[in-house]
């Protein structure tokens, strides 16, 4: 049969388009991708026993493809939507060159061997978040093998109450590894935000980031050698930077720890740790649901902060803002950043009044709907509008953008 158009770029979900490139050879790669997307229900459409060979997969899948099909079926075969549509999967059957997939450990071993890294991370995310296969992060044997990533970190935060001390210690390895990577990346952004703005005044400090290309080339044009097409630099010039200072500012981070805000809690904790100790900034970190927990004492250790977070429960934003308002020392030198979806479970009128009071006394109030790398805002638009109407700045910021905002305020 004709292969038709090339399948779309992969999304590792059989229901939505692709599962990564098949690793094996021999069979038609395009047909294999479509067969993996469509599952066993499409075997008849591919002509069972076709020229591509193989015992399963309608003759389309090679040995590696059958292994991929079994691994995908182990996960997506439990989808209730397929059952409602009468699509039968062959869940639990093995394929190709691998043993039968029985346990989560076996499945993780299979997908790590058969799929590219980005597909493995998507499959792990679907296992934890879509199908709630908790033993991905509560089974010691699984934790010992798994590669730490942000998806698993969010899963650990949601399920650590299910873990015994031994498992919790292994889970901490995931938290530490992911936080370390985030700290390395965000610390660079924060340092850049606080280094100061370039001035036109020359500097005697020779730093690559401050290299004055225009002046250096202009001054050394007399040393241009046409035959070599090169300018020989005898004198290099560098910009100086103006100091961002000055009077001490407070940054009070109020972070919603309800279940949907896991990504925001992670990035808020890491951002707070990056800002901690910077000249001119006094940072506080407070998490809340219906209760308020001040984690400022642990702010320099984001791993400890995250291990103390309890995701889930209700939301009382007004109570958190009331607590934060009591921490303000100099209103006109304070930023209160509320990170939440703004679905208020407490008193909405009190929340609006408290935010209005902060704004009127000169405090800068940021209402941030998300604080992860995508900054994908999911929030109550009606409440967000009410807060904007009383003077709060409402929107979404990545950690780097928040650091830049704080640096701009401190440098005024």
TrEMBL record:
Organism of origin: Dactylosporangium matsuzakiense
Return the Pro residues bias intervals.
1-13
**Superkingdom of the organism of origin:** Bacteria
Annotated region Disordered: the residues are: 1-26
Instruction: Extract the InterPro entries matched here.
Output: LolB, Uncharacterised_CoxE, VWF_A, vWFA_dom_sf
Residues annotated as domain VWFA? 248-407
Protein name, per record? VWFA domain-containing protein
